[in-house]
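Morning F.,

Quick status update on the modeling queue. The single chain you submitted on Monday has been processed. Sequence for confirmation:
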Amino acid sequence: MKAVIYARYSSDNQREESIEGQIRECTEYAVRNDIMVIGSYVDRALSAKTADRPEFQRMIKDSDKGLFNVVLVWKLDRFSRDRYDSAHYKRILKKNGVRVISAKENITGNEKPTERLRERH
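Structure tokens below.
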């Protein structure tokens, strides 16, 4: 399984280290679950209330190249805080054979780690 990490912070209230912390925890999750991380996409000081984030859009576009089959996020709110956008972009990713997995959140804990997917609605 090949993954990319998507990390972001949204405001001046969060520090640059929050990106490195997200990447570190996602990488640790990947190692524990035998997932190969092939790259990362990082948006700095951009809100997830909008999908108008350059690296996020590049990741969505790159998902159709078949290079990765997982987007690994620290928590799902890093992917999107807007339900419509979240569903829309997850649908695009799914069409491209890509799933979103959270390193810190899971549904019940009974799934295989690589099958964990949590939706907020």
